[in-house]
Amino acid sequence: MGHDQKSGHDHHGHGHTHIDFAEMLSMLEQEAELFTPLYTEAAGWLKELRPDPELIVDAGSGPGVISCLLADTFPEARVVAVDGSAPLLEAARTRAARRGIADRFSTLEAELGDGLGDLEYPADLLWASRSLHHVGDQRGALAGFADRLAPGGTLALMEGGLPPRHLPRDFGIGRPGLAARLDAVQEEWFARMRAELPGAVVEEVEDWPTLLTAVGLRHTGTRTFLLDLPAPVSDDARAFVATSLRHRRDGLAEGLDADDLATLERLLDPDDKASVFHRPDVFVLAALTVYVGVKP
Question: By C-alpha distance, which of 237, 230, 226, 204 is closest to 135?
Fold first, then answer.
């Protein structure tokens, strides 16, 4: 299902709305690793709210970057990574073994829309990072999450925030405002993706505190976390920006005009001095929001 994926709405899709997350393994890992400072801060906040969980579930874990970070943050806890993609869960197990936490790390292959009923024990902390919006019936999935929480258990739902930014509004090539136009096309793609999901009969308003309350949880906090990597960025950050722009170009090409596509081609040409591989003004700025609910 959803994964350690970027900010705002996930820019998956390649001219259509089917998403094969297994094909995105390297991109998912690349982004989650770059966003580690943000996720570390979020995990630290959760530790203040729930300091001693015995069982943590990462619902929509992808390749397990955040699952392992949660294991590091809560060294006494067991962690279960839940995802619908077997290759991504294999990558998660490999990562856990490499980090020396395999003895308290396990995986469960399951689609989030089908619930988490195969969990052996109720979760004390359930983390769902940008995975819920890939489920047609979001309220139903949230109810499933709530059902699998232990009494007093905490659900941390990361959804929304702000679209990422990597370049100034006017960066010297093409028409100013490229990022805003990409966002507009992205929103149209996201609406189609949501509409085509199985079970997406009711269109939910994205009022996450109200939805948490509707499934029987007590909304106890909301906080937005910032990733601010100013220019000049590291080689890893520059590589991520290139991957992200390439993915958006490929997935949103049908909705972009010729001028913006030409600008993206220049930004992604390693031989062009105006590309993100060389220009000094590349940065990474993203904001992701976490909503917390507690089971009475």
Answer: 204
Distances (CA, A) of 245 to 128, 226, 248, 290: 25, 20, 5, 25
Q: Which residues make Cβ contacts (< 8 Å) with residue 252, sequence separation at least 6? A: 11, 13, 182, 185, 186, 189
Nearest to 165 by CA among 292, 1, 7, 290: 7
Work out the pLDDT band at 13, boundaries 50, 70, 90: very low
Question: Is 151 within 8 Å of 294 (Cβ atoms)?
Answer: no
Question: What is the mean predicted confidence (pLDDT) over 187-201?
Answer: 90
Which is nearest to 128 in space by CA: 109, 107, 118, 142?
142
| CA–CA separation, 211 and 281 (whole Å) | 40
Cβ atoms 141, 290 nearer than 8 A: no
Q: How far apart are CA 255 and CA 147, in angstroms?
A: 40
Strands 218-229 and 284-294: antiparallel
How far apart, in whole angstroms, are the C-alpha atoms of residue 179 and residue 177?
Answer: 6
Amino acid of residue 287: A
